[in-house]
Amino acid sequence: MRLNGKTALITGAGSGYGAEMARRFRAEGARVACVDLNLDAARQVAAEAGNGAAIAVQCDVADGPSVAAMVKEVDAQFGGFDVLINNAAITQHPSRTGRTPEAEVDRLFAINVKSLYHMAAHALPVLRRVGGGSVINIASVTALRPRPGMTWYNATKAAVISITQSMAGEFAPDRIRVNAIAPAVGRTPMFSEMFKDEAEADAAHDRLVTTIPLGRLCRPTDIAAAAVYLSSDEAEYVTGIIMPIDGGRLVG
Ligand SMILES: NC(=O)c1ccc[n+]([C@@H]2O[C@H](COP(=O)([O-])OP(=O)(O)OC[C@H]3O[C@@H](n4cnc5c(N)ncnc54)[C@H](O)[C@@H]3O)[C@@H](O)[C@H]2O)c1
């Protein structure tokens, strides 16, 4: 019960890393707002995590009015929140840097980067009002050690790191800590979206494992454990860090 008394808003909570963070946060005693574009998926996670202390709210994080309405609803239902996890994102289909369709580049930046602007505009005032809290932005180890074919996705995650560091200094006087987690590749639904079929995904999995010193891909439980720590009072002196959860990929 390391998060007793806390209330967390987690975006992209309908799947993968976000869904596991929602489950783990409930298990640690937090109330959780599961926010996702896919309302059915968010509802399912909220129902599992449950007991009335988890709710599901639909939102497109790339759309300002949608974020404003979602924050209002979570605030109304829970009377504020003190943990914000900006986790929702999309990946890109591997392509050469100048061949990625322009519309795909725009969409990557709208969902992965501009969403943080909308969240800063609408959710940060709530954290300030309740007297502070913890913001966790989910970046990626690919921002620090890129793989080819993923230039624009990697760039969005590098922006997430820069935004995290800028915000940490700005919001420290408000007692709002801002940190990032940089996960290694994991076999979530996002992973499958990068490949044309499961056979291609299996082959990529085997190849990627050999690039990770600890010998396996990242699991949602690895990310949830880091997020619990960064949201808990144990991390009260931690802000502005980029925490790689990467099985040693950066040093391998
Ligand atoms: N899986 C990986 O290999 C990996 C590696 C490094 C970092 N990450 C990062 O971890 C985070 C979670 O990734 P995942 O693998 O769990 O992904 P996922 O695709 O399994 O889940 C992402 C969730 O975000 C939601 N979402 C997408 N667009 C949205 C929007 N516009 N508004 C609201 N919700 C939206 C989706 O509906 C989905 O439920 C992302 O930030 C991702 O970039 C993932």
Automatic annotation (TrEMBL):
Keywords: Oxidoreductase. InterPro entries: NAD(P)-bd_dom_sf, Sc_DH/Rdtase_CS, SDR_fam. GO terms for molecular function: oxidoreductase activity. SUPFAM superfamilies: NAD(P)-binding Rossmann-fold domains. Pfam families: adh_short_C2. PROSITE patterns: ADH_SHORT (PS00061). PANTHER family: OXIDOREDUCTASE, SHORT-CHAIN DEHYDROGENASE/REDUCTASE FAMILY (AFU_ORTHOLOGUE AFUA_5G02870), SHORT-CHAIN DEHYDROGENASE_REDUCTASE FAMILY PROTEIN. This is SDR family NAD(P)-dependent oxidoreductase. It comes from Bosea caraganae.
